[in-house]
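Private note to self, pasted from the team thread so I don't lose it. Backbone tokens:
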């Protein structure tokens, strides 16, 4: 039997950032055990979704958010099927939207997450869109040209990024959020308030504690109506009220599904030979939905697929991003109920820093505006190191604390 015939057939469903990182890790390890086929329902090779708002604002071009060219896949022996949807996993084959079936020995589900569409009256009107893909950006760019303002529903990361991109593209934007603060899963009230003011400074109207009741219009969006009865005229609505892991293929294949596709420390589901990673995966009860955990999972799975031994212990829940041009970092127990808080604030910059201490250990942190020491704080939280020795200098950052 030839070496090529002896290779295991590996199908990777999904061609996002997690999938590509898995391939890159396999290349780094020099793995040559598999005949690899990658199936992605978007026509483009993997791209950086974090930069979609910058693409919308025309701060970068499509070529700038691409991560590897089509030629790269072929150069490393990977077959890329872009613009083809996987519709089912039955037995040891994947059914594709073009009628083909791909047999496999092992399959990796890197199916990502899909935007949540709120069950609002009017959600099917022309002008209602979600924000997740390059195709969505192209539609949103068409909102300009003298049309009415745009309403973005959702004050999490996706909603803020959509609002920022639209505003930078010259559109009038209102951001509507049901909670009392933006990014409530990542920021405390003071940090979120600073971010809201920064957005308002960019011309975005921010409405908090505001629930959308309905989207109004005959054939096309004309306004939204809030639960309080306010009518906000608009020509388009962007729903950015969260995402949910894509689990349908896994469920049909017999894998356990909770909020995401349940995997063990080796990223394998309860079905031997079926693995999952990235936004669609649930590990020890957690769906991260963040880039760094996905990359850590990819390293582990690449090692496993290459015949090595590796285990994913989980990741520190941390956000370290530039949100609409504003640097934001949070990690650990950033609310810190009943704990000691160290707060450093400079409204002139503006900058906000909150550190949460429990029993001499840094338990959580929020940084808005100045995040230069974010990785140091993340390491301190992850290590559980005692910081009592430099507790009084902790808020001023690593260089100052170590010098002191």
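Design output:
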């Amino acid at each position: 039997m030839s070496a090529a015939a002896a290779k295991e057939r590996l199908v990777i469903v999904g061609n996002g950032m997690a999938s590509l990182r898995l391939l890159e890790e396999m290349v780094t390890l020099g793995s040559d055990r598999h005949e690899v086929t990658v199936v992605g329902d978007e026509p483009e090779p993997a791209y950086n979704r974090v930069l979609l708002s910058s693409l919308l604002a025309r701060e970068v071009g499509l070529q700038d958010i691409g991560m590897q060219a089509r030629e790269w896949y072929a150069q490393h022996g990977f077959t890329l099927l872009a613009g083809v949807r996987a519709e089912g996993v039955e037995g040891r084959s994947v059914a594709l939207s073009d009628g083909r079936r791909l047999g496999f020995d092992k399959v990796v589900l890197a199916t990502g997450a899909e935007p949540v569409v709120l069950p609002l009256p009017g959600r099917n009107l022309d002008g209602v869109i979600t924000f997740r893909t390059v195709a969505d950006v192209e539609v949103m760019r068409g909102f300009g040209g003298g049309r009415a303002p745009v309403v973005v529903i959702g004050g999490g990361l996706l909603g803020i990024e959509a609002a920022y991109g639209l505003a930078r593209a010259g559109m009038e934007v209102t951001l509507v959020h049901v909670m009392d603060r933006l990014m409530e899963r990542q920021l405390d009230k003071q940090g979120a308030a600073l971010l809201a003011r920064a957005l308002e400074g960019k011309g975005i109207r921010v409405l908090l504690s505001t629930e959308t009741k309905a989207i109004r219009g005959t054939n096309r969006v004309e306004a939204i109506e809030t639960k309080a009865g306010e009518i906000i005229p608009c020509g388009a609505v962007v729903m950015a009220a969260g995402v949910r892991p894509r689990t349908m293929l896994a469920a049909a294949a017999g894998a356990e599904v909770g909020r995401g596709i349940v995997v063990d420390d080796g990223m394998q589901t309860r079905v031997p030979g079926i693995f999952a990673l990235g936004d669609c995966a649930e590990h020890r009860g957690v769906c991260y939905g963040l880039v760094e955990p996905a990359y850590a999972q990819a390293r582990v799975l690449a090692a496993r697929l290459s015949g090595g031994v590796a285990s994913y212990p989980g990741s520190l829940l941390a956000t370290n991003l530039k949100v609409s041009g504003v640097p934001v970092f949070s990690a650990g127990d950033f609310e810190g109920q009943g704990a000691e808080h160290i707060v450093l604030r400079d409204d002139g910059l503006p900058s906000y820093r909150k550190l949460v201490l429990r029993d001499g250990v840094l338990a959580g942190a929020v940084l808005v505006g100045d995040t230069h020491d974010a990785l140091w704080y993340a390491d301190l939280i992850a290590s559980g190191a005692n910081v009592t020795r430099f507790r009084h200098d902790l808020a001023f950052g690593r260089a100052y604390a170590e010098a002191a």
